[in-house]
Design brief:
alpha/beta, OB fold (Dihydrolipoamide Acetyltransferase, E2P), Rossmann fold, 3 domains, seven-stranded mixed sheet, 25% helix
Length: 481
């Protein structure tokens, strides 16, 4: 039986629907604002700026934490600025555009440091300040815009536009509607021209936008890819049916309007998922791919290829990986989750051999093509599921040369525990772990460090996506001898 004193301790000091005045202290990992009532923590999921004093409405109150929604700002934040984007707050994208860039980096730094020191228990580990982006606008080399027959209406901004057609970005928290936008300041520079031309073409020719609820309508996505170092441009219109003839006049228009248009394709996706890949891709103009330069290397990028979304910062990221790797000419490197082989190929000239592992066959194909394109012969790419590859096919371990270094670049979910055990069993002298999710990275590193007798030597965050809560983190581990 719980006595009254214990009940008092379990009861939160705030109630749902209560209005409060809160001071936002910092941003948690993921971008939520942090405030306190006494020792009770309250998270503000949206529109939070450190230093702000806000009037807020409590939307959730558990015994451990609360959540609140901002009703109004009483006092501006320390480094708060006016966002350049007119869609800020409606679009689910650049959540930190109202923060000075140095403050964004500071918040990301504190979040990564807290994850390592508190969650991971790596109290002695030095986390370096993030590598900053030289370009904080128009930095993306790929952007996916959505068509919708339901337009998200922003008061006073686009009330005169047709309600049954939108081309832009999903509204924050609403998958069915899209904001009809004129430009995006983090997308390739040609986005404004393309959004306008494609929208006008569709409306002029009465081509329907996709209905995400009923799965009807022709136009699903406009995908733009650009080589930041080559200026080559790819336009991919994703449609719900295979009728490329409807888009041929648009291909002709855009080829005249954009001299750097290298590829115009039409991907057909009849499925219910909102993916931009599909069962078939029609070539309507130019080539089926564009090329991009990364350092001294050239990469072919097809419509479905994975490639780091910020080329300029990918170069900085891979330089950190190279520096952490401390490579020698006689060394063997294993690259786990190698994707299209960008890291493997980037490091190949510095070592004896690089072996990449990847589950996606199309990525393996692209990796081999890029190796051939760059005349790199000391790489090998192996298709397999890393969650079970080394256990299911143990002969691979006998056949391959032992690694002096293992590079890990997993998805956001991190590594499967079985792979962690496999890496510990292989016990390479060096490990470099690249992650887009430092929370799962810290979880995995704790297992490796505790069970595998490794120490974390260096941690370097890299800001690949300015104005967002996302951060790439590179960690170097060395084996205790």
């Amino acid at each position: 039986m719980i006595d009254s004193e214990e009940t008092e301790k379990l009861s939160p000091p705030v109630k749902k629907h209560q209005e409060l005045e809160l001071k936002i202290e910092n941003l948690a990992f993921g971008g939520k604002g942090i405030a306190h009532v006494d020792d009770y923590i309250i998270f503000i999921p949206k529109d939070a700026v450190p230093g702000q004093v806000v009037k807020a409405l409590v939307t959730k109150a558990t015994s451990n934490y609360g959540e609140a929604r901002v009703l109004g700002v009483i006092k501006r934040g320390y480094n708060e600025i006016k966002p350049l984007c007119p869609y800020f707050g409606n679009c689910g994208g650049c959540k930190h555009q109202n923060l000075q860039y140095q403050e964004q980096l500071k918040q990301l730094y504190n979040q990564v440091k807290e994850l390592y020191h508190l969650l991971g228990g790596f109290k002695e580990t030095v986390v370096n300040f993030p590598v900053s982006s030289d370009k904080i606008f128009h930095y993306r080399n790929k952007m996916e815009f959505a068509f919708s027959n339901r337009r998200w209406i922003i008061d006073g901004l686009d009330e005169e536009k047709p309600k049954g057609f939108a081309l832009g970005l999903r509204a924050s928290g609403n998958y069915w509607k899209a904001i009809d936008i004129d430009d995006c300041i983090i997308a390739p520079e040609e986005s404004g021209i393309l959004l306008s031309s494609v929208r006008n073409f569709a409306l002029r020719n009465k081509i329907s936008a996709y209905d995400q609820k009923r799965h009807k309508g022709f136009l699903r996505h406009l995908v733009i890819r650009k080589g930041q170092n080559t200026e080559q441009l790819m336009v991919n219109i994703v449609t719900n049916s295979d009728s490329p003839e409807l888009l041929m006049p648009l291909a002709d228009e855009l080829s005249k309007e954009l001299p750097n248009l290298t590829s115009f394709v039409n991907t057909v996706n009849r499925g219910v998922s909102g993916t931009t890949t599909g069962e078939k891709t029609n070539l309507l103009y130019g080539k089926r791919y564009i090329e991009e330069k990364l350092g001294e290397l050239t990469f072919k990028i097809s419509p479905a290829s994975f490639f780091q979304t910020n080329t300029l910062m990918a170069e900085k990221l891979y330089e950190v990986v190279k520096d952490f790797s401390e490579l020698e000419k006689d060394e063997v490197v294993w690259d786990l989750y190698c994707g299209t082989g960008t890291i493997a190929l980037y490091l190949a000239s510095y070592v004896k051999k690089v072996i990449g592992f990847e589950i996606v066959p199309e990525a393996i194909r692209d990796a081999n093509e890029n190796a051939e394109l760059n005349r790199i012969e000391n790489v090998r790419f192996i298709k397999g599921n890393l969650d079970k590859l080394f256990r299911k096919e143990p002969e691979i371990l006998k056949e391959l040369p032992s690694p002096d270094l293992i590079i890990i670049d997993p998805p956001r979910s991190g590594m499967h525990p079985k792979l962690v055990s496999d890496i510990i069993e292989i016990h390479p002298p060096k490990i470099v772990y690249v992650s887009c999710n430092p929370a799962t990275q810290v979880r995995d590193l704790k297992l490796i460090a505790d069970r595998g007798n490794y120490i974390i030597d260096s941690v370097q965050p890299v800001d690949i996506f300015p104005h967002t809560p996302h951060i790439e983190v590179v960690a170097k581990l060395v084996l205790r001898f």
